[in-house]
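Lab channel / #folding
Pinned by the channel admin:
"Please post every new chain as: sequence first, then the structure tokens as a reply. Keep commentary short and put observations after the output so the thread stays searchable."

First post following the new format, from NK:
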Amino acid sequence: MNKRLLTMAGSGLLVLGVAIGGARATAQEPSGGGGEHMGQQHRMMSPDEELKRLDSRLKLTDDQKSQIKPILEDRQKKMADLHSDTSVSPEDRRTKMRSIMEDSNGKIRDVLNDDQKKQFDDMQQHMHGRTRGPGGGAPPAPPQP
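Reply from TO:
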């Protein structure tokens, strides 16, 4: 249970960074921008893009897609609303974004079958490892004399 919470928290932090960077890049781009500049690579995926990514990795059924898409749309709206709220401190914003991510990931996980849940957890763990720097995970322990 603790491992799952850590995994979800780590993935939330990763998406948090992407969401903040993406919201800033989107706010600075003129509407209809082609996305040629380097900031484009940091934007948050749209609900449709995220659904396609999940489908390609988890082989979702049409019923699962129809249940997951509103979760992703709700998450995007909450993230955008939070980002535009200038009264929230950066620390509170990070905490709330993490909570939004954990909540939506939990809802997505509830829609999945057992095999998909394992794959989804593996995806979250992989993303969590990537947030810890090159090579993922903690640095190796120093050699013992």
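NK: The helical segments are 2-28, 47-58, 62-84, 90-111, 114-130.
TO: also worth noting, The chain is about 70% helix and 0% strand.
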